[in-house]
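Researcher: Excuse me, tokens okay?
***
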Amino acid sequence: MPNTCENALGTFLRDRRSRMEPAAFGFPVGRRRTPGLRREEVALRSNISPTWYSWLEQGRGGAPSADVLDRLAKGLMLTEPEREHLFILGLGRPPITHYPACDDVTPRLQRVLDALPLSPAIIKTATWDVVAWNRAAATLLTDYAKLPREERNVLRLIFTNPRSRAAQEDWWTVARYVVGALRADAARAGASTEMTRLVEDLSALSPEFAALWRENDVVGHADGQKRLRHPEHGLIELEFSVFAVDGRPDLGMLVYNPATPESARRIEALLAQTAP
């Protein structure tokens, strides 16, 4: 029989079933040699063969299917991080994600944005819908609150909004970048259906988007630089970083920091000018 180092999947399964209280799931407690559920009880809860489950714990029978792992995750009541770990042990990859719709963020996450007074910051979905922002972003980038919800999308603004287009110091570079980043983000988050709808809409509205989409470029976007041209305050240079939102693979936080002291002064002046 394989040892625990060679059978990490079996070790993980045994550990998780040992933590489950039989009485909580309607199983008789009686006399048990070990704590937790028996193998056949986990198999029953997971709707799989007891023999197959025993083989998995023993490291026999080959790799389980994604469907079996999903059933085990439900039967063992795994958290989402535990489910992901189960897939990595069983198949060598995380589970395929099912894209969740998102219209808002937690108050705590909004407070993180608001704590960045001179740094425009937004929370975006995998298809680049903006679902939260701070005052600096509303002032320097776009006042998203004044837009209908369906128009709060970075790509829609870049390709169809004249004001957003005019603000970009190098529009074509920005446009190419966001198209490649959209392709990567949507695929990673499992948002193929949502991306298809957005691509169809933008392709009909913008020949430039359609041309860039056909190039099939994919880009990462952990950090970079952005240059905006404000009609009154001139050039504002920014450095941006993208942060993952833990437990939400569909969301990312995009923070723009002033790249120079002069840009910081210009942002501060702009915020003072538009103070409520």
Residues 84 and 94 are 5 Å apart (CA to CA). Residues 1-5 have pLDDT under 50 and may be disordered.
